[in-house]
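Let us work through a complete example step by step.
Step 1: write down the sequence.
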Amino acid sequence: MPKRSIVIAGAGVFGTALAQRLSWNEDNAITLYTIEEDVIVDINTKHQNSKYFPGRHIHGDIVATGDIRCTYQADMLFLAIPSKAIESFCKDIYVHTRKDIRIVNLSKGLAEDGSFLIEQIPFSHTGSLKGPTFAVEVMNGDPSGMTFGGSVEDYTVLQGVMQDTGITLDYSHDIRAVEFLSVLKNMYAIAIGIVSGRYSSPNVDFLVMTKAVNEMRRMLKLYGCDEETIFNYCGLGDLGLTALNDLSRNRTLGLLIGKGFSNDPKSTTVIEGLRTIKLLGELVRSKGLERQFVVLEALYALLYSGSSLNDYYVTVLA
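Step 2: predict the structure and record it as tokens.
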């Protein structure tokens, strides 16, 4: 029986870590597509990706390439590329790929106009895979959970791909909710990090986290998404991981702000979180919903309207 052809676009930290885990399933043939020539040479000659995981061995059957034609006959394509590159990448390959190819979006963020990334992916079999997964722990082989959003048929296929990998899946029919929660959790991780920077108190963290969960549910409803998705791995699980763990770059930014340092980040992940605060904060104000989104409004006021840290604390802790 031929192996499944699995292509992962993007050989950064998460793409590489996922490739390693998918290689545990002997029925998967894994190809990493990347534009980074040094990474290609490193993987194919030394079975390592020293740029992102120095000193770590990568399964010998994983192949890296810069030839985009590797996607043309793939059974499944995971997108682990920057969100701003998704639309052009999909347009480049769309006419060449198989009609039954399964596309799984791993990238997070909203498009520049505030629309969902999934709306830029034109394939008929498209899903979203998100959850509480630090790349280094995926690479280490730690058991992990993720949520697939999409059709039941595509979920069934993905379950086969994930078999024996130690990655547990749960399911939501609402692909937009899965995508949206991966954006919202970064924003609220900054909000919780700010109070952690001041108080360093689990009581305070969970006070604000509970408010964040309620606001995330309201935001899902505002966008016409399934509110129950908050209870999947991509919801409470990913919020908890990102907001309460110091490996999180968004939480770290919040900590720095809470301690009175600059909020000028370098990480694209954190910049995306700040952009989401601006976009959704303006939306909430335009609809007069500030009282329903107290944490978001306080965060927006602090970062974009000249409000003080003390004003922020008074508002979110009331």
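Step 3: interpret the result. The mean pLDDT is 95.
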